[in-house]
Amino acid sequence: MAGTTLKIAPNSREGEAVAAILLARMGDFAKSKALMNDLEKRYSNHSVVQSYWLPSIRAQIALQKNDTAAALNELQTAAPLDTLYPQVMFYSHMPSVVLRAEAYSRSGQFALAAVEWSKVLDNPGIVQLSATAPMARLQLARSYVSQAALGDSSARAKARAAYKEFLALWQDADVGIHVLTEARSEYSKLQ
Fold it and tell me: What is the pLDDT at residue 12?
């Protein structure tokens, strides 16, 4: 996907930023950093690139290296733009919010992760054409399960409700979809 994006729109700020995040997510740090450095040079005075995209790319790199503290630190800069439309596109997949939620989950801060996943669900207009919204519902359920495992007595019911909503959205999906199979299995363990 990253390569296709760069071929279709080689000079797109947002396309290049998303490609850098995807490449970092796949562990291709050299290409990710090259795109990040290019963005930093070409858009040295562009406030959204400097305060949103570059911190998000750095955060993804940090997450891939299991440095959640560095990721969360980078994402503090992006926070004011979390629910704005940082892209030229008609929608956003809210990468700063997703990355922050993932960092909180990896660092065992499941309640804070749930807040971030809820932020995605509370802003459906932003993620309208993105897979982020349905996946946020599943990740929210998983955050609640983790909270329940740590002794939060109300989290189990919240997890069941979030799984139910996720499964209702996917009720007509093809049976063999891996994420759906996982979600059904996880939900059945809560019954």
Answer: 74
DSSP assigned state of 51: I
pLDDT of residue 123: 86
- Distance CA(165)–CA(151), nearest Å, equals 23
In whole angstroms, give the CA distance from residue 50 to residue 73: 15
Per the CB < 8 A criterion, the answer to whether 25 and 47 are in contact is no
Q: Is 79 exposed, middle or buried (0-12, 13-18, 19+ CB in 10 A)?
A: middle
Question: What's the angle, vertex CA 17, arms to CA 101 and CA 124, rounded to 5?
Answer: 45
- pLDDT for 83: 84
Q: What is the DSSP letter of 49?
A: I
Neighbours of 92 (CB within 10 A): 26
Higher pLDDT, 65 or 14: 65
Given CA atoms 107, 110, 115, 116 in this order, what sign does their dihedral have? positive
Q: CB-based contacts of 119: which residues, under 8 Å, 6+ apart?
A: 82, 83, 94, 97
